Amino acid sequence: MSLDLVAQTYYVPLPEDDLMKYVFQPVEPKYKEGKSSRKNRQRASGDVVSLVSITVSTDGTTVWYDHHEDGFDIDADSTEVWGDGNPGNGCAPGVRPCTSDTDVLVAGQVLVLENTVELAYTGNTYYPTAIDRVETGSFKYDGGDRVQASKPIAVTRGAYPMAPGSVLGGGVEMLDTFSWGTNFVAPIGTDSGNFELTMFFVMAAVDGTVVTIKPKSGSDSTYTLNQGGSVQFPLEEGDELSSTEPVQMDMSAGSYKELRWYSVLPIEDWYTEYLAPVGNTRGKVKVRLFNPDSSSLTIKMKEYGQRDKTYTLSARAGAWSDTIDTGNGALFSADKPFSANSIVDTGGNVFDWGYPLIPTNKLTPEVIIGWGYGCTDKEFCVKKHGNDDVRSEVYVSPTKKANIYVDYDNDGIVDKTYTGVNALQGITISESNDEFGSSADRDMSGARIWANDFSDSSKHVDIAAAWGQNPDLSGGGDSSALDLGTVVVPFLSIAAQKTAVVRTVASNTFIDYTIQVSNVGSGVIVAGGVQITDKLDAAVRYVADSFVYTVGGNAESVAAADFPLTGAGLANPAAFDGRGGQHTMTFTVRVIDTSVELIYNGGVAKFGNQEALFGVYTEVESGGNSPTLFRQGNPTNPDEAPTDVTEDEDDETEELCY
Fold first, then answer.
1. Residue stretches of the chain with pLDDT short of 50
2. Whether residue 123 sits in one domain with residue 220
3. Are residues 93 and 148 in the same domain?
4. What's the pLDDT at 644?
């Protein structure tokens, strides 16, 4: 497999042995009979139930699952390849029989990789280490693995110890490597209140990554990580972290029998506005706000149906919001960037979970649910609330009045429509017996949810979403409840890629480029909705009038002496059909600097808040020949009569798709 097929790369965070040692055991206690001292608590024990949920957004996706135990090599025997039509390298878990016809992945397909990861204990200690599985080859789906995909996917990480079970569970949204960063600030600490332990996990994708911790008090410390390696340490609110290469950071905020997991954005991605889709009066849902600036900051809270509230935060300090009530969403805004993280159940330990708020400049009109079980066992929920037997639901709130559509199975069929949902109003969505009777699977995994403007269905409306336990549907000692939740990462409804072919004609070297922009979302994108720009390398010059724009097989040449995608670029001249509509652009450049051996050309397709990056590195060898995608003729003079040119293949091109 070559890198030109990879659109996204993820690394599974939170290794199981570290979770047991630094998260589950410190916060899960059972008092020994007749004892009440905290020193006599019995810690969590046993193995760890580990879960990685992968949701496919687009037909024809290929996924590579690379186990970390024997190193990272996408072509190794231990790397599982799903959806490439080659049964020789296996099929996705659960696909039987495995044939070339069944080795396919389709939109809405959910790969729930759930297994028990055995832990080894030394003596009578509570500090386990993962069993070495390299010699046996019995690799598990666990922390440290790498997941790559040819088209956008949604990935969720979850885990809980065998004892006491899912009541001490955690779930976190996974971010692909393009969302990683090099500068972080801890947005929550034990000094924030509500938490006894805040543990941060950092994972690298590049060997030799140096991570530096800069606490508010005390000395700096450094760690060196290799690809897939991670390190953990407690931080307080406002502590800083930097790294020499991009890393991902996840946080576990815990206290007595309570866990809340969060992905942490690099500080350069913090923003001035966030939308919280989860409100619940019984759960006393609040948001922890943190001001990283050296001066005070006033943050406004606009809750649906309520009067606005304001909070003034001192320099590099935090504050708790008021409770967001059931059925409400809330918008937090300021004139400088800050962070916002939600906490569900601020008053007890029955239905505790949390999620990071997504900045509004990152929201999109569509989401796809990764892990979305309605109960611990998605096939069976013990009824405690009549017919409403699910415990976990999806929470959605729009940025303006909208119609919200739900496709439970992501099969292209709208299963339910919520009409006229007001801006900042919160709704909860589940597939329960109330609605579907015996056919309900109580599982929102893979569901696609999107929104259009209430007054004009051709316009899209951004939404915020989260999945987690509903306090109104849960009770104490509820074995059917997953005591966890995650934010639902916005789904990018456009994708783009660029390829190149090098050829030589009459001692001149030319590169033929192809750009493909696709609508992988559910709604139609109208003409002019996407702005496409591309920047040519200084070593090449555009061949006049070579640009061709193709929609649905209909090609249209664009007569232009200058490159049409330069500067402000070009808006799509025709609409993109939903769920697979594709536009193709081709053009030719001539290499004018023959001393350059590696040429890069890249650009971006923009749709609202969304940006689909595309780029390609092309290796040019002096005198090398390759097949042409350009019409036969002299490319320096398109009007010249065609000539016969014999050319051989040259595959020394590395495409980088995003």
1. 1-3, 30-40, 124, 126, 433, 623-658
2. no
3. yes
4. 33
- Whether residues 308 and 256 fall in one domain: no
The CATH number assigned to the domain holding 625 equals 2.60.40
The burial class, CB within 10 Å (0-12 / 13-18 / 19+), for 383 is exposed
Question: Which residue range forms the structural domain that includes residue 446?
Answer: 270-491
449 and 316 in a common domain = yes
Question: What pLDDT score was predicted for residue 38?
Answer: 47
410 φ/ψ sector (left φ>0, alpha ψ -120 to 50, else beta):
left
Alpha-carbon span 71 to 392, nearest angstrom: 36
Q: Rounded distance, CA 328 to CA 325, Å?
A: 6
Residues 151 and 162 in one domain: yes
CB 303 within 8 A of CB 424: yes
- R_g of the chain, CA atoms, integer Å: 26
| C-alpha span between 403 and 523 (Å, rounded) | 12
Can the peptide bond before residue 97 be classed as cis, meaning omega within 30 degrees of 0?
yes
Cβ burial, residue 248 (10 Å; 0-12/13-18/19+): buried
**Residues 187 and 232 both lie in one domain:** yes
Dig out the tokens for 628 from the structure. 């042409």
Cα separation of 631 and 418, whole Å?
Answer: 51
Statement to judge: residues 198 and 157 lie in one domain: no
Give this prediction's pTM: 0.83
Q: Scan for tokens 């920047």, then name that residue.
A: 535
Instruction: Among 120, 147, 174, identify where a domain stops.
Output: 174
- The domain tally of the chain equals 4
ω into residue 398 within 30 of 0, thus cis? Answer: no
How far apart (Å, rounded) are the C-alpha atoms in residues 108 and 409?
6
Q: Tokens standing for 244? A: 């020499």
DSSP state for residue 642 in the 8-state scheme: P
Bin 220: left if φ > 0, else alpha if -120 < ψ < 50, else beta.
beta
484 and 498 in one domain? no
State which of 491, 506, 538 marks the end of a domain: 491
Residue matched to tokens 């967001």: 324
Instruction: For tokens 């037909």, name the residue.
Output: 59
Local structure of 88: helix, strand or coil:
helix
Whether residue 164 has a cis bond before it, omega within 30° of 0: yes
